[in-house]
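Posting for a labmate who doesn't have an account.
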Amino acid sequence: MRNKIAKSEERRAKNYIGLALDLGTTVIKGYAVDLKSRRIIGQAKTYNQQNDFGSDVLIRISKALQGKYNSLRNSLLLSIEQIKGDLQIKNPDFTVVVGNTAMLSFYQNKSVADLAKFPFKSEIRDMQTETTRKSYIFPVIGSFVGGDTIAGILARKLYKSKNNGLYIDLGTNGEVALITKGKIFASSTAAGPAFEGVGISCGSLAVPGAIDRIKYYKGKFKYHTINEELPNGICASGIIDLLAIMLKHKFIDSSGRLIKNVNVRGFSLNQADIRKLQLAISAIHAGIEILLNKSGLKPKDIDETVITGEFGANLNTKALKEIGILPQKLNNIRFESDLPLKGAIAVLKNRDAIKQVEAIKNASKHIELAVQPNFQEIFVSAMRLAKWN
């Protein structure tokens, strides 16, 4: 199944065209850029065909080690070719690529064997500028924290600020980074694809017709769909709204037990959906809490929080706090779409930005959550759907 959103303009044959690619676990995205005018002239996205092998990177890595590496890599490359076809770019003059460590490993034809065991390292080099000078691949921070995190921090310019910043990518890999006093603490939270609507019975990507906002008033649900088209499922922002409403009105309890079935235009969350969402919530919660502990900061000390991901609309801050993803005292929260891709575009438009990429990489310290002494305790506690005080 493929979702195509492509916008292309007529281009003269002599135009100098660049391609920015974000190799997401669930979705591959691309932007075409006229490198002379620095204008974005097209955009496209498609399902990562690796989804046919499993919804998360750990399943795919396991299957790669069982002899399906070439098939997985070919699926990724076919997805990229689909993007290029949708953008009508056969041979881009320059390509910039971001992605998590596993996706970048498949892309560069590097083994993923060391990502299957502790300490979860990859064979990909820190940085790749090919000898043909035709492409640039963002470096990784460590383990499953890839170039997409660096690109997002670059795009939002969080590394330049003297304030304390928190960067959260609510995608399948679920990266979290805390920026303070010239240092960056970063971790991968293995949230799974639930926040992208994948694996949820009523779930949808943020596409036209997806329910992206839900409200509950006087016993009735009200909703909004992307582009105001007929509803075809609920995307991440709507799912989080619905979960918060169900918790607040006691359709579920704090343990996640489903007490009363509800539906929005025929779509509803079942018990299995709720459990998947609890796992995703606790993963992100644990990542944030452990990075705060590592930095010695409290939620109130964070000056700016930036959240990105495959949402299609701004998330509801109250809903995020209601279900315990974010602490109550976290303020100045902003939602911005496609930050990793915007970081890739920044390098396309100005090659000097690579120096800034290197600075972010060098300032970053990877925190492996699973080896933290209190990780299991925090993770299990965060499974409870409750406000984080």
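Reply:
Got it, the structure tokens are right above this. The domain at 7-148 is CATH 3.30.420.480 (Nucleotidyltransferase; domain 5).
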